UniProtKB/TrEMBL annotation:
Pfam families: Pkinase. It comes from Galleria mellonella (Greater wax moth). Its EC number is 2.7.11.11. Residues 53-307 form the Protein kinase domain. This is cAMP-dependent protein kinase. Residues 308-360 form the AGC-kinase C-terminal domain. Belongs to the protein kinase superfamily. SUPFAM superfamilies: Protein kinase-like (PK-like). ATP binds at K82. Keywords: ATP-binding, Kinase, Nucleotide-binding, Serine/threonine-protein kinase, Transferase. The keyword DNA-binding does not apply. It catalyses: L-seryl-[protein] + ATP = O-phospho-L-seryl-[protein] + ADP + H(+); L-threonyl-[protein] + ATP = O-phospho-L-threonyl-[protein] + ADP + H(+).
Amino acid sequence: MADDVKRHTYFSNPGGYSHAKQDQYKQYLRKLHQDFIESWNEKTEVDGKLSDFEKSRILGTGAFGVVYLVRHTNSGKYYAMKMLEKEKIVKLKQIEHSFYEKKILSGLNFPFVVFMKYFFKDNVYLYYILPFIPGGEMFTHLRKMGKFDESSSKFYGAQVILALEYLHACELVYRDLKPENILIDRTGYIKLTDFGFCKLIQGRTWTLCGTPEYLAPEIILSKGYGMSVDWWSLGILLFEMSAGHPPFYASDPMRIYEKIVSGKYRCPSHFSSELKDLVSHVLQVDTTRRYGNLKDGTLDFKNHKWFREIDWDNLLNSRIPPPFIPKIRSPGDATNFDIFDEEKIKESPVCLFEEEFIDF
């Protein structure tokens, strides 16, 4: 990646992103919001069954279940099948979160986020069928390389900004931004995944959820919060991509929280002055001073000097050459994902928790 990046240039955008262009873009986002609300108000019908898919291997595991690479027997296309165990969802009191995730995934439609292709359930599991993104997690590539150069961090960070701007336009707070939840597609562009903590909100919410290193101070302090928490997480992500580690780190989560609330961190010496400046405007404990949350919204990012080389319209349309394209040998190649032990699939002669999941 490194050698390619040094020779990599972006389409320059010296004039910046004007208010007029942003107003035009907001109209586009309003249309996408309308589409999302229409989808939200519809009941998603069960449109598949387990026998339609051949399981290949595990792509990832989580608290509620497992993600498999599967092949659709009719079309031959590969998908990621998220199997959520109903019993675990009930035990961990996550029925509402799982319901939200299903509704949200059904309505998403944006280049840099995943969406749900099919949904069904059986006696034991819920099944969310999502596109298979073969490049694997950003986390894996970041750990392999140690850190990204700023050119790569900029390319990925700009797409995350557009993805968050889209989600916020749909009144969705994401709440789980981190390299593990960013997948790299075959094109080298990204897709946000895992919408288990995503929530439709108007105003504030109070739930404590997320990953310790990425939590915003207002979540930790139980102040009630809105979309601003995602911009804080973006600041953490920009820092981690460029440094190889998050700005607030400790082995004990309580110590991490203390550091976050204090807002004190140290940038590595290799950070450019522009990156240091941007991070300082995002990792603001005071939300009234935090980028993304000010009167100009995302324009503060789009016109920041660190992003001056990015042509945002070309980026949205995937017209900028990526700094890195993952090696993918075939449509079902999952070698960019970690190897996991096989998990025993549970079965039941009766439908478990039928009442709890009746609305799904």
